Structure formats: structure tokens, C-alpha cells
Amino acid sequence: MNFSEEASYVKSLYGKADGAPTVPEVPWTLAFTYDETPFLKISCSYCHQSQETISDDPAVGAFRHCNMVEEPPKELIEKLVKYQIKRGVRRAPSIFQRITGQTPSLNAF
Fold first, then answer.
1. What is the domain count for the chain?
2. pTM recorded for the entire structure
3. Fewer CB near the last or first residue (10 Å), C or N of the chain?
4. Mind listing the pLDDT tens digit for each residue in 11-26?
């Protein structure tokens, strides 16, 4: 590898001329399995990492890639929980959970 190829490779790693790293766009999607179980899916086209999660906890569902951590959007987590309750994967919240804002646990299969 000559100097110009090495310089372009290093520039592609670090991004712009001012040294700011390039941040790849990684969209979160709400997907369903064949039996219609909902889950969140994310994949990075830059480092080829992918992840699927059924958790409603942003810390558990955090996606680590390209030396970054991406948490799922709150709106998408709310949709996930709603679809999990609708499909019977998660219990409906009790009155106490509605008042305190807790999320019901997943059903044991």
C-alpha cells in the first residue's frame, strides 16, 4: 500500500478534514417473525454489525458499533410494547403499573 492509498484509508476512518468522525446512518426498524412476534432490529452497513432485541429497556437494547452506542428511539419502544401486548407476548399492564408507569414483564413460554 503506498502513501496515497494509506492516507485515503485513514481519511475514510476519521471522516472530514477537521478530524470529525463520520457517523453512519443506522435506522431502527420494528420487524415481525413468522409467528408475528415483534422485535426491534438494527444493522450498520459500515461495520456490518446487526442486532435484534425484544427488550423494552434502552440499556439492554443499546446497539454497539463503530465505537458508538445507539439506543432505540422511545417511540419505537412504545410501539414494540404495544404490539407485544397485542400479540400476547407481554402481559397487559395492571392498574398499579399504569399509575406508576412501569412496563409489564414478558410472558413465560
1. 1
2. 0.66
3. C
4. 565 555 555 556 667 7
